[in-house]
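step: validate -> pass
step: tokenize input -> pass
step: predict -> running
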Amino acid sequence: MLALVLLLCGDCGAQEGRSAPLSFAGDDNYPPFEWLDENGHAKGFVVDLGRAMAAQGGREARNLQMDWPAALAGLRSGEVDVVAMFASPARAQDFLFTTPFYFVTHGIYGLQGSDGIPDLAALQGRRVALEDGGYAADTLLANNIDVVPVIREDYRAALQAVIDQQADVALLPQPVSNRTISRESLPIQVLGPPLWPRPYVFAVSRQQPELHSWLQQQLGLVVSTGQYYDIYHRWREEIEWNRPGYWQQYAGWLILGAALVGLLLLMIYAYSWRLRAVVRRLSWQLENARVRKSHAEKEMLHWEYHDRLTGLPTRPEFVSRVRAHLLRAERKGSSHVLMVAKLAEIDDFICSLGFGTGEMLVSEVARRLKRKGFAALCYMGRGVFALLAQDKTALVDGLLDQNALVFDGLELEPRFTIGLAHCPPTGGDVGEMLRQAETAMAFASRSGRSWMEYKQSMDPDPQNLFIIRDFRRSGREGLRVMLQPQVELITGRVVGAEVLVRWRHPELGELSPAHFVPLLEQAGLVVTLTEFVLFEAVRLAADFRRQGMPTCLSVNISAVDLLETDLCAKVDWALASFGGDARDLRLEMTETSMISEPERVSMVIAQLASMGVTCSIDDFGMGYSSMSHLRQFAISEVKIDRSFVYDMLTQEAHHAIVSAVIALCHELKLTVVAEGPEDWQTVQALQGLNCDRAQGYVFSRPVEVSEFMALREQIFSFSPDQERA
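step: predict -> pass
step: emit ->
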């Protein structure tokens, strides 16, 4: 954390560097991705996306459209910052790539009426028009495909070379080529299947890793906030250009006419044969129905116990086969392990490449697993396989072959997250063993490990399930609040308190908040808990003010409360219900909850501040600990985490951190609360650092509301012989 304080000082210099304009270079004639219009303005999908990323990071985007070779040369020389391009191993040696934001294929184009070209090998010896410095030219050279290259300055000139018969075919990106062919009605057609589905990425020089990290972060934020999909929607018709040609306008009528004529001829033919074929047809139908019924029964019986995608047994069939195999193994004295293996990146593959590619991936993985010769194997859906093996050699050798899986030119290297359960030598419940393996797999996934063996300690505590169930049923029954005072260090007076929830369970008695609050957060029930504490805090604060003792009460707010509920409406409702004053309410939010969706959280906090509610950063220093939070959010208080305060007299680093945070917050006109002092020497040290308020056991533990009234009138002197509360 001492390094954190040093980094905070350097953050200002980094911000100055980030304020400079960011130069994006690209092809000046590459629609719809990027080009210069008739007025010399940069347009296109990539141009809009680059501007959105720069704006997301608070920087200005400067677009420089030029010849493609000049753009690459500018990126290598450092004259420009970012260029959008196709990712390739050769280019990766010179540049750093962001996550792909689009995939583009190439196509083989020739004059209308030309013969089809099934693959790249058929281009041997032909004149092929290519873009200067384009991906296709580099790839043909790298794959040693012997063609006669006809190099042109851009894709349009390459198409014109085919029209002028200076080249036999052109090998070009499909989105830009299809758009131009359709718009200009060029006498050119696609002669072969799509080639090389390549990722379209933003590239920066390898000498600028900080810019690459910043650009990657902004791209992620543009996608997560929905700006990417808005930009793509605006350019979708241009990118996915597929307008019908002249002949297609009349194709429907021609097909309909042909269908009507064919139907008429068929009716005449059928009527002429009707009388003679009645008996023969009925006999054939009866026989065919019998055969189809027999086949259908066999097929239904098969698919009742097998998965249609992979052809592997389903879970019930797998359990039956494992049970039978273990009975035979018991007589031979051999041991087995049951494994549950999940494709770790299956969700990412589906989100990036679609369900079709995901299904092909699962099918290919299943085919390779079959070759491993496991005693039993099944597919349980969503990329999860279960298998029975005699030992752990499958883990050592790898469940898949060493060769990568290739789909449409994309190389995928899937990996597994595996859970193991040992089969007892005298047999056992297969369903229970399968549950144990799934539990171990879940633990391995959460801990980031490739595999784990089941241990009994992994089993969840059933009592936790009962606690969640009882809270759902009883709601707020048994809940109450306690108050822990906050003392102003200048005067020694109690000026506020933190509202802490307690729950007396009807059967389990008093439960620790450290136990039941995380359970309710995981079960999505923390909103009910927050509502109770919020309304109790407003009610108590209103009572204190009416008694002439205005006291600001603090309530902890979670990320769910900030993002998934109308928190401002709840606060307004509570204040109106009890006649409360917004100045008597303080909402404490952790740094982690504030950074999850910063733009939306900033709006909520700003609205709360406009209502007069004080907003505070709780546990400061334990989350992301960025000083930008103090500027980005409309907060007026910082609460230093107890882990730095309670031992600040013995840990020099913690003392330095507390001192630096207090000084910085005061410069920003923020109130500072130290949480966790447990002795008067620490309190006096905080006084010496000009800390505003403190909250800790040295003053009082959390107390009932009735006891807090007495503490409210007490004045602490902070002397060494002060009685400990």
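step: describe -> The chain is about 45% helix and 20% strand.
step: cleanup -> pass
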